Amino acid sequence: MISIWFFIGLSLAGNGALILGAGIYQLVKPPLQPGVVLFELHANVWWGAVLLVIGALYCFKFAPGRQS
Predict the structure, then answer these.
(1) pTM check: above 0.85
(2) Domain containing 26: what range?
(3) pLDDT per position in the chain (68 positions), as tens?
(4) Which has the closest alpha carbon to 10: 49, 58, 44, 47?
(5) 55 and 6 in contact (C-beta within 8 Å)?
(6) Residue 57 to residues 27, 32, 67: CA-CA distances in angstroms?
(7) Residue 67 lies in a domain
(8) Alpha-carbon distance 8 to 48, whole Å?
């Protein structure tokens, strides 16, 4: 039986990769008028990386076939 936490890890990692990719794109090509307060902190890069790491940890810990 596959743990639900494995799928949650996949979801977190997938969303984190998308958010991180969008943040890196905005680092390379910043918008002319960002319209976001504190845009220079690049929260999407940080949160994308955090979600990606947490999702990868969940996927590793709750991987199918791995003894818990």
Answers:
(1) yes
(2) 4-61
(3) 889 999 999 999 999 999 999 999 999 999 999 888 899 999 999 999 999 999 999 999 999 987 65
(4) 58
(5) no
(6) 26, 36, 15
(7) no
(8) 15
